[in-house]
Recover the amino acids of this structure.
């Protein structure tokens, strides 16, 4: 090549410069030809979301799974789903930890833990079936769609029975509704339209039937609008999370609920004008009153009557009956009383709607499960699918040991799997196809959101293959032929649905639309409901002897060592199936802030009588079992009650669940008495082992951190009234108070509004934050010394001078005059141009001065290099740094989501709109208590509330940090009913 | 200064006693440096082992994370920061004794000042470790140092931790310089004894020769040295006050109830001196006996120390009373609840222990019998040391564990790692002090001899000073006359006025103030060095802080601009002291012609660092005999002719 001349070089350089300057790459992009066939999978490095259905409990909420580079990292509520409308509870969030659980079953196993190959397993089980001499029995968790069909056909093919059983199953409700209306169903409770919700121990915000749905409905009915707000009255023996949100909490001993309900019914029947068939109603009332005791202490007849009047006269109201785990006759009587109240007030068909029965109506109760297992013999083959009877059903362990063969299909090495002869790992609900119908007309669809992690199989395929190996290939009843696999079976089911719902659209379109929306939804047909006469068995039933002696109920507590048992599923651990998930173990239980354990609650007088104090271990026993639990002394339970949460006490299931707390299911079963769970005996165990609470006190010490406003006052206020808050903007600066003038923001000033009145304390936001921001689980030992890493903590506080609970979501307040910033020696804590208090992890040297100086103490220090046992690390959000030991971390308002939204807006050449950005906590909140937005945008919701809502206030405003989180006070009903 | 100071001075009027002469003082001090006993080596080994254990614990902590300590949420600072404050406090009395008491001319300070200064340095060395130990990420601690780097990020000069860093490092620098400069004449004595006993090539002789920087005690050197030392003292005094004030701002600048208090700076300074004086007693009482220094360090000195402690006791007691009062008077709910919690919560035992330990125990010093009883002194000193450690710990941990939001409250218990490192810090401190006690002169012999000289020369005056400015002789030929004390030296100097010899030089173990007057020397140029050094430090500090803020452009704490002038004044102040001291030192080195390799003048004799005073007359070789005759008139002990 010839050497280039200087002249030529300059010429080339000049023309190249002109070319670069005049042809920006964005113009080139316009001329790119798009794919003719777009790739099926999203390109790497980009988010995709998959709609699916949550299977963590029978509620069946819709989920969106955030997927990136072959793994899902975040579960969110599906805003289009009719059940949860975008919210998702802590357990739903944790489905990812279930998917990535390091202790998951990874390959087929024989008893004793010997691994086997799939062909071996299938052939061997098939042979067993072929040579069976006894029955083939399937015990499954609640399934409704294609999988239910497969299981039922499997059981039918081998002449056996299939039972779909849930440990917390509402069989009392079904039984009561069967007895009253001939409908063994759980109706839809339409709470959002009610002005009064009366709940008899039904913790519908915690775990009862469909908590996310009910929480959203409750927050709507309970919100202040047009000068008023709905009221919730809770009657029960324990101040649960739901009771904490009630406007009136009537703390009554177990059994007292029935007395009150019956008394109300009597008042309505005698003084009011009951709707419907008054004669039959009176007959039922008579039958029920024979089994109800007198009104509990502290509840006057006048009060009950006024409650009854309010219930009838309210434009709409509903009575609910709990408890969630109750299955005896007492629970059924209560459910009958509540249903009769609804009937008498004319709520059937409106707020209590049998047109759309809940999936739980199709769940078998404990009685049926017990009956099924009791009949097992040496000859029988038991298949378990997702059910863990050994943990949750008394007597199941003996039955399983008795059975000829136990084949366990599941994802976790639980207590039942430990006794199984074959353990077959099935796909997690997030890895498999499936469908679930949480209530009539809502057909939720499930799709694989990532390729399977381990050597597992779809549960449906296993049944098909085993049946085929046993020589009896399964076919759909009335369907076309024998489907190859479960996916085909599902398609066939959905073809039927398609034919019913939208026969005019092509199936593919219907299918993809359903996949995209998370399911197909239809309006169920109306049903007419009639009150049936009193069944003979109801009248004849003897009054329990204990009641004859004393008209008061719950007399078990009258001696020191006796108490009435009250068992409740906690909002985090529910029936215990999720107990191996670090997020849920670490998430504080809303009313007690206890983590990583279980405990028993006793009234102070009871504890004193037993000579026990906080943290002492108590032995609780009845004829079935004895468990030992540490004591929490609290006035939140009735005096004769020993309240115990469910969910802990596993002997298997994995590293986090095993040997933690005690299993209260052991105390349940076979109760036929005046109370739901029967009496227990208490005995000091002579040692102390305090549970780990992450909030040492609920007392506000007169600091007015969580504030209440009387409804009457609020009613008299107009927008803009009330104490103005000091804004985190230049107008919030005052020369009399501030040394500086404040900084102007050009584009955004992010802020949040937390409506404390809407917050029910469920803690979903906290777990969503763990999932979104790669927050490490520290474990009980570290939490005990205060080293949890939660960026967002929902803190329970008492109303000053009362026992009323409220919850204060506490996260970084993104203060304008952030006290954490000037103290940092290395500028690791700085303010960014959009008002965020940013923490630069790379700069942080770990002096912890910022945390000391943060009045809200919302900064978290990395005490060690945290580890995510494989494959949990696959859940980590690639857009958020995993912090190393020695640096401070904190809430960022999900800055990655802000940046993504800004990026999307920029690409679309439009400004960021209000509502574009949803931090993880805001997104997850079932009740929409959290609101995020731009304070500079005058018409944004956040701006409007911060400026105008009469309930607005800042926590610790006197410190003049100018926080960007405005809280709206809880509203207090004027007077009790 | 207070009544107690005056009383102390009066009690020490007769000191040093008649029995002590120049030679005895020098020999007592140098004899203390004789090879140590086996017990000494055992102690040093034990201490070194404890330090090694603490160091291993530290390494473990760095590798695993702060999880191995008891620090938690909400108590972000635990016993490490308590130790830091405690040791910075211990570091205070050294410079107090050296600088402030030098400025107010308290005679009794001399006996204890050297050990107190050494204690200061070792305590700062110990204290300085704790902010590092407590860092979450030790390996990037240098982010806090202001230097231009590729990261383009500078420290945040509004942070009290940066002030702390600047103040403590300035304090260490200044203390080391002050300590070393004050020791120069004594190092010359050590050098001379080593040279004469072990020969000029022995390792000891070489080390001390290097350390003594060619100190020869000429009038010229003493003149600059005296001024320089005065300026050091003047700069160190506000520094002492500032350092613990700055340390207190770590807390007082915080929002927390119990920390956010204006009483903290004086409270911390007084507490620091309180604990520092106690530590001086703890160290000096055994050292006096083991090193046989009874003749130099007498009960009068301890009496004076004890009386000073009475003053600090009063201030500390006042602070104890004012804290709850202000908390009540402020009407602030959280402050008052915090105060109530301090008195009744789970840490109340500490709160109530402070009063007997830090107030009632030293209050016993009002009794003369207690002040003059070594056992009582030692016991009280130990109690105060323990009490002040508890106080520091309590201040750090108390407020953090009980702040604004009750749901965050939580206790703190130090872990074994923290206890090991805390024990290691005491061992580390003692280790250095033991090394010091055998390798350096533990009593400022030069200053004590100076006290002797003061008493011997007070009625000598001169009418017309010798016009010898700029003509002081150095290594040229001349005649040297050796005198036994300052008085004959000054008489000879006065007598030389009549002669035609103009190139005169004295060589003395102490600064004889009148010599300057007799030779007609001015105050010298060092003050200009110091002044311009200090000025440049002040401007430089402001420039550094505001300039880096401008470079960063980062906004913190709701300011409207990145620059905040008020906090930068602290940086400017520390710059003033640091640069003033460094310039002062440079001036001294330049003008007194000091340096490790510098040769001694030809007329120098080792006795001049011990007990002899020399007058050297420089002249042409031809006039040597004449000069010899002139000098012989003053009856010197010896006359030597120096032929170049």
């Amino acid at each position: 090549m010839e050497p280039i001349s200087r002249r030529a070089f300059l010429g080339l350089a000049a023309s190249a410069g002109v070319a670069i300057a005049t042809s920006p790459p964005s113009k080139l992009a316009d001329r790119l030809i798009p794919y003719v066939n777009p790739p099926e999978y999203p390109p790497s490095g980009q988010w995709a979301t998959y709609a699916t259905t949550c299977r963590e409990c029978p509620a069946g909420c819709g989920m969106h799974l955030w997927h990136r580079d072959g793994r899902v990292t975040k579960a969110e509520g599906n805003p289009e789903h009719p059940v949860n409308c975008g919210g998702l509870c802590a357990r739903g969030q944790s489905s990812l930890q279930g998917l990535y659980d390091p202790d998951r079953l990874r390959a087929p196993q024989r008893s004793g833990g010997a691994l086997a190959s799939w062909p071996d397993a299938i052939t061997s089980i098939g042979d067993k079936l072929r040579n069976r001499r006894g029955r083939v029995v399937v015990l499954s968790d609640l399934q409704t769609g294609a999988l239910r069909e497969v299981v039922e056909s499997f059981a039918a093919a081998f002449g056996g029975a299939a039972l779909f059983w849930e440990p917390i199953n509402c069989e009392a409700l079904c039984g009561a509704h069967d007895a009253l209306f001939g409908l063994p169903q759980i109706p839809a409770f339409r709470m959002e339209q009610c002005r009064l919700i009366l709940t008899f121990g039904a913790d519908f915000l915690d775990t009862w039937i469909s908590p996310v749905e009910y929480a959203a409905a409750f927050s709507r009915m309970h919100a202040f609008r047009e000068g008023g707000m709905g009221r919730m009255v809770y009657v029960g023996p324990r101040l649960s999370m739901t009771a904490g949100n009630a406007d009136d909490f009537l703390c009554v001993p177990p059994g007292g609920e029935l007395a009150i309900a019956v008394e109300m019914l009597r008042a309505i029947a005698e003084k009011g004008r009951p709707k419907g068939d008054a004669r039959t109603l009176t007959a039922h009332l008579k039958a029920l009153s024979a089994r109800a005791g007198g009104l509990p202490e502290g509840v006057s007849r006048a009060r009950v009557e006024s409650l009854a009047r309010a219930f009838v006269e309210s434009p709409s109201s509903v009575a609910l009956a709990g408890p969630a785990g109750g299955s005896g006759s007492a629970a059924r009587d209560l459910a009958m009383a509540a249903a009769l109240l609804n009937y008498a007030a004319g709520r059937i068909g409106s707020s209590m709607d049998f047109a759309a029965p809940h999936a739980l109506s199709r769940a078998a109760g404990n009685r049926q499960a017990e009956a099924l297992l009791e009949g097992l013999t040496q000859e029988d083959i038991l298949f378990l699918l997702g059910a863990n009877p050994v943990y949750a059903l008394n007597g199941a362990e003996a039955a399983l040991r008795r059975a000829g063969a136990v084949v366990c299909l599941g994802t976790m090495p639980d207590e039942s799997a430990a006794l199984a002869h074959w353990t077959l790992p099935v796909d997690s609900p997030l890895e498999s196809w499936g469908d679930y119908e949480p209530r009539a007309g809502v057909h939720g669809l499930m799709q694989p959101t990532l390729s399977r992690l381990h050597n597992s199989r779809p549960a449906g395929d296993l049944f098909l293959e085993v049946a085929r190996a046993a020589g009896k290939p399964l076919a759909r009843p009335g369907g076309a032929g024998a489907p190859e696999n479960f996916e085909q079976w599902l398609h066939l089911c959905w073809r039927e649905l398609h034919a019913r719902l939208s026969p005019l659209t092509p199936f593919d379109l219907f299918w993809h639309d359903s996949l995209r929306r998370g399911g197909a939804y239809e309006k169920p047909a109306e049903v007419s409901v009639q009150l049936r006469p009193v069944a003979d068995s109801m009248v004849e039933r003897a009054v329990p002897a204990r009641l004859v002696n004393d008209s008061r109920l719950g007399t078990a507590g009258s001696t020191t060592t006796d108490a009435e048992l009250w068992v409740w599923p906690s909002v985090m651990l529910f029936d215990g199936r999720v107990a191996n998930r670090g997020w849920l173990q670490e998430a504080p239980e809303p009313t007690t802030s206890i983590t990583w354990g279980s405990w028993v609650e006793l009234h102070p007088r009871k504890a004193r009588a037993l000579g026990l104090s906080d943290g002492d271990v108590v032995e609780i026993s009845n004829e079935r079992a004895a468990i030992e639990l540490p004591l929490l002394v609290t006035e939140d339970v009735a005096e004769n009650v020993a309240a115990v949460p469910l969910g802990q006490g596993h002997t298997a299931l994995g590293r986090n669940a095993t040997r933690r707390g005690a299993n209260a299911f052991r105390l349940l079963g076979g109760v036929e008495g005046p109370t739901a769970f029967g009496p227990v005996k208490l005995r000091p165990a002579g040692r102390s082992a305090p549970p780990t609470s992450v909030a040492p006190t609920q007392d506000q010490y007169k600091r007015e951190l969580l504030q209440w406003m009387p409804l009457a006052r609020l009613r008299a206020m107009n927008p803009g009234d009330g104490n103005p808050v000091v804004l985190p903007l230049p107008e919030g600066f005052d020369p009399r108070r501030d040394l500086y003038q404040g900084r102007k923001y050009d584009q955004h000033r992010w802020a949040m509004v937390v409506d404390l009145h809407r917050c029910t304390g469920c803690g979903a936001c906290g777990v969503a934050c763990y999932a979104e921001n790669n927050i490490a689980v520290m474990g009980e030992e570290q939490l005990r010394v205060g080293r949890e890493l939660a960026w967002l903590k929902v803190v329970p506080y008492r109303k000053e001078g009362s026992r009323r609970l409220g919850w204060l979501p506490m996260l970084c307040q993104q203060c304008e005059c952030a006290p954490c910033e000037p103290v940092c020696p290395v500028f690791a804590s700085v303010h960014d141009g959009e008002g965020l208090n940013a923490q630069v992890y790379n700069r942080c040297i770990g002096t912890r001065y910022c945390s000391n100086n943060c009045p809200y103490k919302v900064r978290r220090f990395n005490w060690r290099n945290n580890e995510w046992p494989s494959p949990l690390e696959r859940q980590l959000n690639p857009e958020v740094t995993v912090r190393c030991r020695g640096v401070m971390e904190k809430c960022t308002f999900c800055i990655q989501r802000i940046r993504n939204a800004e990026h999307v807006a920029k690409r679309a050449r439009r400004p960021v709109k209000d509502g574009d950005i949803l931090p993880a906590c805001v997104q997850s909140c079932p009740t929409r208590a959290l609101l995020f937005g731009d304070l500079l945008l005058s018409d944004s919701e956040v701006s409007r509330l911060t400026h105008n809502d009469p309930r607005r206030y800042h926590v610790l405003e006197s410190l003049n940090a100018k926080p960007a989180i405005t809280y709206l006070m809880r509203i207090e009903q004027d007077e009790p009913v | 200064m207070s009544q107690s100071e005056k009383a102390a001075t009066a009690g020490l009027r007769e000191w040093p006693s008649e029995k002590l002469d120049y030679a005895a003082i020098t020999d007592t001090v140098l004899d203390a440096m004789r090879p140590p006993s086996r017990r000494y080596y055992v102690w040093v080994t034990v201490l070194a082992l404890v330090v090694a254990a603490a160091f291993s614990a530290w390494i473990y902590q760095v590798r695993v994370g702060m999880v191995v300590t008891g620090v938690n949420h909400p108590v972000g600072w635990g016993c490490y920061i308590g130790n830091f404050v405690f040791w910075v406090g211990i570091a205070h009395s050294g410079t107090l004794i050296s600088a402030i008491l030098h400025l107010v001319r308290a005679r009794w300070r001399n006996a204890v000042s050297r050990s107190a200064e050494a204690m200061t340095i070792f305590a700062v060395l110990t204290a300085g470790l704790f902010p590092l130990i407590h860092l979450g990420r030790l390996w990037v601690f240098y982010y806090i140092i202001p230097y231009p780097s590729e990261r383009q990020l500078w420290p945040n000069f509004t942070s009290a931790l940066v002030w702390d860093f600047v103040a403590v490092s300035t304090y260490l620098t200044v203390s080391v310089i002050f300590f070393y400069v004050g020791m120069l004449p004594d190092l010359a004595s050590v050098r001379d004894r080593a040279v004469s006993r072990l020969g000029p090539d022995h390792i000891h002789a070489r080390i001390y020769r290097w350390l003594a920087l060619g100190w020869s005690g000429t009038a010229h050197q003493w003149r600059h040295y005296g001024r320089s030392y005065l300026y050091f003292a003047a700069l160190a005094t506000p520094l002492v006050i500032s350092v613990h004030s700055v340390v207190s701002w770590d807390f007082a600048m915080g929002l927390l109830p119990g920390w956010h208090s204006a009483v903290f700076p004086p409270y911390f300074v007084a507490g620091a001196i309180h604990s520092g004086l106690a530590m001086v007693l703890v160290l000096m009482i055994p050292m006096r006996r083991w090193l046989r220094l009874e003749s130099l360090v007498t009960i009068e000195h301890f009496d004076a120390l004890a009386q000073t402690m009475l003053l600090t006791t009063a201030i500390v007691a006042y602070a104890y009373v004012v804290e709850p009062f202000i908390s009540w008077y402020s009407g602030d709910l959280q402050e008052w609840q915090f105060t109530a919690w301090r008195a009744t919560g789970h840490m109340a035992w500490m709160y109530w222990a402070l009063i007997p330990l830090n107030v009632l125990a030293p209050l016993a010093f009002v009794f003369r019998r207690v002040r003059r009883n070594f056992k009582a002194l030692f016991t009280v000193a130990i109690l105060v040391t323990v009490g002040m450690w508890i106080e520091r710990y309590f201040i750090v941990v108390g407020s953090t564990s009980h702040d604004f939001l009750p749901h965050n409250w939580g206790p703190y218990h130090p872990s074994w790692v923290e206890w090991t490192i805390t024990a290691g810090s005491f061992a580390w401190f003692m280790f250095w002090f033991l090394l010091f006690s055998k390798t350096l002169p533990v009593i400022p012999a030069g200053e004590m001899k100076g006290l002797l000289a003061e008493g011997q020369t007070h009625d000598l005056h001169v009418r017309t000073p010798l016009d010898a400015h700029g003509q002081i002789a150095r290594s040229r030929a001349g005649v040297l006359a050796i005198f036994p004390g300052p008085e004959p030296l000054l008489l000879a100097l006065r007598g030389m006025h009549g002669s035609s010899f103009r190139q005169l030089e004295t060589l003395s173990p102490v600064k004889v103030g009148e010599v300057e007057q007799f030779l007609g020397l001015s105050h010298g140029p060092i003050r200009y060095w110091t002044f311009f050094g200090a000025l440049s430090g002040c401007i430089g500090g402001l420039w550094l802080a505001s300039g880096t803020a401008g470079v960063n452009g980062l906004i913190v704490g709701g300011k409207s601009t990145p620059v905040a002038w008020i906090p930068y004044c602290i940086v400017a102040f520390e710059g003033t002291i640091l640069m003033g001291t460094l310039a002062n030192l440079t001036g001294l080195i330049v003008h007194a012609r000091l340096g490790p390799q510098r040769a001694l003048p030809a007329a120098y004799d080792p006795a001049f660092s011990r007990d002899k005073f020399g007058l050297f007359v420089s002249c042409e070789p031809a006039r040597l005999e004449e000069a010899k005759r002139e000098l012989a008139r003053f009856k010197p002990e010896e006359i030597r002719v120096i032929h170049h």
